[in-house]
Structures are given as structure tokens and as C-alpha cells.
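Protein details
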Amino acid sequence: MTETILALVPIYGLALIAIGTLLSCLALPIPSSLIMLSAGGFAAAGDLVLWQAGAAALGGAILGDQLGYQAGRLGGRLFSGRRLTPQRAALMAKAGAYVQERGAMAVFLSRWLVSPLGPYVNFASGAARLDWARFSRAAIMGEMVWVTIYIGLGAVFADDILALADLLGSVSGLLAALALAGALGLWLKAALHHRQQRETSR
């Protein structure tokens, strides 16, 4: 699949980059990070224009975020966990707790630092009725960081894209796991504190 993607990027160019980032922001299994790294590499080789590749990736990501937010806002029950696989339901629940705890900062960080949570934070933000303007500002800033990192690294390390993709994927997964553990720890601490207050007031 990786070789197929690498072959398609120079052929379909900007459209593939934009569609890839859009679909990945809707929780579809699209290797958007690899697509952006490849786009950066092809831009370095002169097959694509760097700023156009970045604009396509950013445009697709922003549109995907907006669609995910609106889907969560209009159909919160659909993403409550009852119609999702157990794994995705768990991710959705954790994303919801992350949004409730950190709000716009959760949106910003989930674009690039803990990107596996990004699509679920979009849905959770809409379902939790996070202010749209606040969501949009945080999402756009975060996507700008994400696109700059991946397109830029692809351009700089054009000869080692596959190794770089594996490394970044491992780091991103680790950071996402740490973020989830931290969010669950904060939630547990708050729940225990609330329980102690109830017992004290009796």
C-alpha cells in the first residue's frame, strides 16, 4: 500500500493530498502523514510545488475538521459509542474527556502532537457544543503546525521518507497513549475528589 501511495502522489498531486487529509480527519484509515511526507519529497525533487502541496493539505484538513465537528454537533448520539466498534467507542469517550478537560487546547494539540485522537476530538467537540469559532481557531492553528511539520520534513528528508514515516508514526502513537493516560488520570483524580466531598458532606 505504501508503494502505491508513493506512486499516486506525483500523478494525482494536489487533489490526492487534499482528499487524503480530509478523509483522515473523518477517522477514515488514510495514511495522510505519509502522503504529506511524500508530497514534500516530490516537491524537493521538483515534481510538485511546495507551497501548493502545503495549501492542498491544509485546505483538506480544515474542511475535514469542519465536517467532523458538524457531524458531532448534528448527530451527537451517533458518536456516543453505541454504533461504534468497541475500540472506536473507547477513543471517542477518551476524546470527549480530553475536550471537556482542555477545550480548545485539546483541539490544537490533537491536530499534530497526538494526531491519532484528532478525528475523535472533532466529533467530541461538536457533540459537546464547543464554541465553533473557538474550535475553528484552534483547529486551523494546529493543522498549520501539522502540515508544516510533515511537508517540511518530507522536503528535507526526501531520501528517507519511509523510515521517517515509521519513526513519526511510533512517536505519535506513544504521545497519544501518554495523553490518554494523563487525561484518564485527571478524570480519575476529579472523580475521587468529588466522591470524597460527597462522603464528607454526609
